[in-house]
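Suppose a classmate hands you a notebook page containing two proteins, each written out with its sequence and a corresponding row of structure tokens. How would you begin to make sense of it? This section walks through that situation. The first entry is reproduced here exactly as it would appear on such a page.
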Amino acid sequence: MKKIGIVTIVLIVGLFIAGCQQNSSEEASATPTEKKDLKFVIVPKVVHPWFDEVNEAAQEQAEILGEQLGVNITIDYRAPQSADVAEQNSILESAAATKPDGIAVDTLDPQGSAQVIQEIREQGIEVIFFASPPPDESGLEDLSFIGNDVYEQGEIAAERLAELLDYKGTVAVMQGVPTAPSHSERYEASKDILAKYPDITVLDGGVSNDDIQTAQQQASAVIAANPDLDGYLMSDAAAPIGISAAIKEAGKEEQITAVGIDSLNTIVENVKEGLLNSSVATKPRMQGSYIVDLLWRHSLGLEIPKAVDTGIDVVTQENVDVFLSE
């Protein structure tokens, strides 16, 4: 699968303000009157602790930006109760009906939501993606994206596990939500990397659908059916928690080496405990902050970047205490 090309760019409020001042004369006729009340909607894939961090950071950034600029920015966070495309589309439609100043979405299925998103854009409402990039040929590839190269993230995790296993053994790879770009690209990256090593056998590790309990149930079944399992990889932030619980329940902490995804507190604690060797993490709080910055900039009629790369962290035994202290 093709890797995502992301332009690394640093955006801070000071630069935004400077940009507004610098372009004020040349954009005066094109820029709408600055609003004193703004509402941005965030629609994640599903109710999930990872998205809670995105929301918390967005709320904090809205308050900081509002205080500095003298505007009132409201964040309307609308999370689907289940990983269901129809439910997410319904939420997008109801959010658009409130006439917000911008919507940030992490789609469960870009193709399944493309028509709804295009209709929202036709209403003059800016839509940006976060966490999962809009895929090519989806009709949405011109939309801005905030996040990291998820394919690279999957590569890093798989290469790390392969090295830990001395490039041999049996590895299970769990999917997240199969239609979600961030999950599917990590999954494909894991398989692509492991395929390079002929002494590694790859097994179907189940499908979590971004649900912790489902991940634990699926992993428990895989572990029971494969008593010689050596390693576990995953594609979403629910799976590390569920898989860790399954490994502990089976008493296989010393046998199964697992490399996780993301850095939620429970995931980091599992690294500390040794249930996960390490975890390759995105930065949800940074994504939440940039959502507010980009949508605010767009509300001024200013151009926003095509992509913002928020980077990748690797949580290990060596640095785990740093993550626990944050």
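The notebook's second entry, a different protein, reads as follows.
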Amino acid sequence: MSGLHDKEEVSIPLLSDVLVSGNPLRASSVERARAAVAASVKASVPEPEGLFAHDADALVERLRGRCMTWLTGEGRAVIEARCSAAMQEHSTWLVGQVSREIGLALETELKVWVKAAVREELAARAGHPPSA
């Protein structure tokens, strides 16, 4: 007895099937996706005379080196400046939020404190001990 999901016997596609040939998003494996991307790039971009795979590898390596140099030098300064600006903006917002919340809490407490102080003062003037 053959398997229930043999490709020859199934009329609907399985999750492992390549639904659209050449579309790497529909490939059933990473290898098929890479092959589909490589085939589509090779078909759409004609290879110039004299450019070989090792030339492309050398170019990729040089670009990687430039990116890393930029990220450890000038790029790092750009990233630090942006992070610093974001931190300053967030700190300013946070101080505003905390100040507003403390102000609201203090406003309600102040009402209680003033009422208690007035009661104490009135009780002291009348000669009675203050009540809580």
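A careful reader of the second entry would note: The CA atoms of residues 103 and 109 lie 10 Å apart.
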